[in-house]
Amino acid sequence: MQRQLFTQPEAQAIWDRFFARIGAICRPLPDEHRREFSLELEDHLYESFNRQEGASEVERLAIAIEKMGDPEEFVKPMVADYQLATAGRTLNPRSVYLGLLFNMSRGVKAVVVSFLYGLGYMLSLGFLFVAIGKPFSPERIGFFAHDGGGFSLGILDQPPAGATELLGYGVIPLCIVLSVTLYLTLTKLISRGRAKPRGSR
Amino acid sequence: MSQVKRIAKWESQVRKGVLDFVVLICLQGERLYGYDLISKLKQRAGLDVSEGTIYPLLNRMAKDGLIEAEWVEMPTGMPRKYYHLTPKGRETLKGMKVAWLRFTTSVDGLLEQ
Q1: Is residue B112 part of a domain?
Q2: Shortest CB distance from A40 goes to which of B12, B50, B55?
Q3: Which of A16, A102, A171, B4 is least surrounded by Cβ atoms within 10 Å, i.e. has the fewest?
Q4: Which of A41, A73, A200 is the best substitution to test chain B (most B C-beta atoms within 10 A)?
Q5: What is the CATH number of the domain that holds B37?
Q6: Of A55, A79, A106, which marks where a domain is finished?
Q7: From B34, which residue of chain A is nearest by alpha-carbon distance?
Q8: Are residues A119 and A194 in the same domain?
Q9: What's the domain count of chain B?
Q10: Tens place of pLDDT for every residue, chain A, 201 residues?
């Protein structure tokens, strides 16, 4: 709900735009959580505005907004924390995805960490594909021992010449266990290790 | 990196590291709302906290059970969210104070050598 707080229409427009932006970033949060967060920021910004010295409402509001900081920087980590905590509790893949995505706003290190977790989840998905695909293409999918030495697990372009498939349909439960174990482990790790929001400058 | 920048970066990291601690200190014995808390951090602790970033921190501390929040209707009609310490927050603060004294004493000891 947009409230009329200013006499200058331009100040009101700046206020509305600022909170529309925050609302957009907070979209992955539950309605109640989003509403409360927005109300708290409104209270803060309005108090800050009232304490600024400036010739006009627009100037005072601009100073208050500048002091509050970039919503991309302070809202996204909170959304990431929420989604990662939810992922740890519900194991919902959507929360995992959103948590990793929003976590990248924390900086280069977080981007690298999120990327590595993303690779881990891809691997988990890969195991699942192997388990699902095995009945459809048993000669190309499985756990192979190669003549020249070495093993491979997964989906191959061609049935490998001179390789022996070792597990048969036993690869299905194995890959399901690997996929689920990897998914659970990664999800518990990210929900526990969620980084702290940046605090001071 | 210049000496000044290096020291500023180090100081910023130290400040970030103690932010949870100083927020708990500010909340001991009184309930505060976000703006009030930031003002206290600036005035009492000299911590120039980026205003927006205090809210994700408060949110996380509430989730961890260290603080609790309650909404209070203000005369202006705007609701205001006040925070206070939970018993777990008080216990944590107690432990942090001991750890902080131990740490600062050992660093002071090094400085005096």
Answers
A1: no
A2: B55
A3: B4
A4: A200
A5: 1.10.10.10
A6: A106
A7: A44
A8: yes
A9: 1
A10: 556 778 888 999 999 999 999 999 999 898 998 999 999 999 999 999 998 887 899 999 999 999 998 888 888 888 888 888 888 888 889 999 999 888 888 888 889 998 999 999 999 999 999 899 888 888 888 888 887 778 888 887 776 677 788 888 888 999 999 999 999 999 988 887 654 434 334
